[in-house]
Amino acid sequence: MGPTRGNASPGQNPAASCGGGGAVCFETRGASDLGAGETRPECPLSGDGRLHTVAGANLTFVRSCDTELIGDDLGWFPTVSMQDCLALCAQLHAHAVSSVGRCEGVTWVYGDGPQGSDVNFCFTKTRITASYRRGGTESGELWTWPEGQYR
Q: What pTM was computed for the model?
């Protein structure tokens, strides 16, 4: 069973609508040398590779390979890398745009076909309750919280 889409809306290309008004903006690194729908997975991870701090956000995520997080979906977005998926979550944590809550983690599905098709998306999550093993995925859960913010 893959991530569920619930009542979330598919994401727009954030780069196309960047610039004020609360838009979520992030840079897709290295996308120009990939074909449409291609991804850049980094599993397996070891040591410090399991921790990823999003530059400028002061948020660190602990990453897991072949793991899907269970929680409420804020939305789903095509991304070429786990870093871009985590950067998106950091933006959705800093700028809570949903009544469901702030982003607390992600599951990035890349192993079921081209990115942006079927369930191959970055699923941003809140209210994470559990996880389970699932091939072709990477997940990241918020590890550090900015001062004054609590789970």
A: 0.73
